[in-house]
Amino acid sequence: MGGTKRTAFWLGMALVIAVAPFLGMEAYTVQIFTLAGIYATVALGLSLVLGNAGQISLGQAAFFGIGAYVTAQLMLKAGLPFILALPVGGFLAGLVGIGLGYLALRFQGHYLAMVTLCFGLIMQILFVQVPALTGGAAGITDIPSPQIFGSAVENGPASWCKTFHLAWFVFLATAWLLSNLLSLQTGRSLAALRDNPIAAESLGLDVSRYKVHAFAISAVLAGLAGGVYCVHTHYIGPEIFGVGASLEFLIMVVVGGLGRPMGAVAGALLFAVVPEFMRTYEEYRLLFFSIVLMAVVLVAPEGIWGLIAHAYRLVTKRRSHGEGALG
Question: How much is the pLDDT for 157?
C-alpha cells in the first residue's frame, strides 16, 4: 500500500469511527462495538509478537489486567485524571513486558508458550492475593468515568458514544503508529526474525533486541486497552484477566489474520459480536471459537482479513483486465 493510499485508508477509518455511533445504533450495540475496539488493541499487540516477530505468547491477558488495575487505582487512590493514568498503566505494563521479553530469550517454540502461560497464571494469582492493590477476588468497583480534555464523561447514552470513540481512536492511533513502524527497517527485521532467526542473526540483526521490543510494545498496547476497559465497564476483577482470556486473544489474532492491523479488528469484532447471539449457550463459547479457529486454519490460513484482501485483489485484477480488453 503506497503512502497516499495508506493515508487515505487511515483517514477513512477515522471518519467511519467518528460517525458510526450516530448511524442509528442502539446504546447497547454501541457498548458491544466499544468492547470490540478494546479487544482490537490487545489483539494488535499480540499480532505483533506472534505474526511479525514469530514469538508465541499466552500471557496477553496479564498485561491487559496490569493496565486496567494501574489505571483504576491511579484514578481512585491517587486522584490522577484518566488522561494521565492511562499512559502510566500502559508504561508499567510495558516494563513488565520487557522483563518477560528478556526471559523469553532463553526459550523457543512450545517452551516459550509454557513460560508465557505460567506468567499469565502467576499474574492472575497475584491479582487475587494482593487485595491492597487489586481488590482481591472481589475486584475493583465504582471506577469513575474519565475526564477527557476537561470534559467529564458521565454515565448514560452520551457517555457510551464517548467511550466508543475513546476505544477506537486508541486503536486507530496505535495501529497507525505500528503500521508506519513496520513499513520501515523494523518491519523487515521482524519478518526475518519470524522466518529464520538463525539466518537473521547471521546477517547481523540484533535478534534479542527485536524480541524484547516486540514483547514490550505488545504489553504497552494491552495495558492501554486495559485502561480503557476499566472506565468502560466501571468494574475489573481477576476472572477477567485469566488464561482463558489470553487464549481468546490468541484465537482472535489467528482467526482475524496474523501480522495485519485490520486482522485484529476482524477477530475482535467476531469475539465481541458473536457471543451476544450465543448467550443461551455461554458455556460453549470457547468450544465454538476453537472450531472456528480450526476451520480458518484449514480453509483460510491468512485469516479473515487475508481472505478479504485476497478477494479484493481478485476483483481489482479482473476489473483491470476488463478495462484493458475494452481499451
Answer: 54
- For cell 466499544, the residue is 34
Closest by Cα among 129, 145, 149 to 137: 129
- Report whether CATH 1.10.3470 matches the domain 26-326: yes
CA atoms within 13 A on the CB side of 234: 12
The predicted pLDDT at position 323 comes to: 56
Distance CA 234, CA 287 (A): 29
- Other C-beta atoms lying within 10 Å of the C-beta of residue 201: 14
Q: Where are the domains of the chain?
A: 26-326
Classify 148 as helix, strand or coil.
strand
Give the mean model confidence (pLDDT) for residues 234-238. 93
Round to whole Å and give the CA distance between 171 and 225: 8
- Reading the block at residue 228, the C-alpha cell is 480503557
DSSP 59-114: -HHHHHHHHHHHHHHHHHTS---HHHHHHHHHHHHHHHHHHHHHHHTT--HHHHHH
Partners of 148 in the β-ladder = 151
Give the dihedral of Cα atoms 146, 67, 38, 153; nearest 10 deg.
0
CB atoms closer than 10 angstroms to residue 56: 21
The answer, as to whether pTM is greater than 0.85, is: yes
Q: 315-325: per-residue pLDDT in tens? A: 777 766 665 55
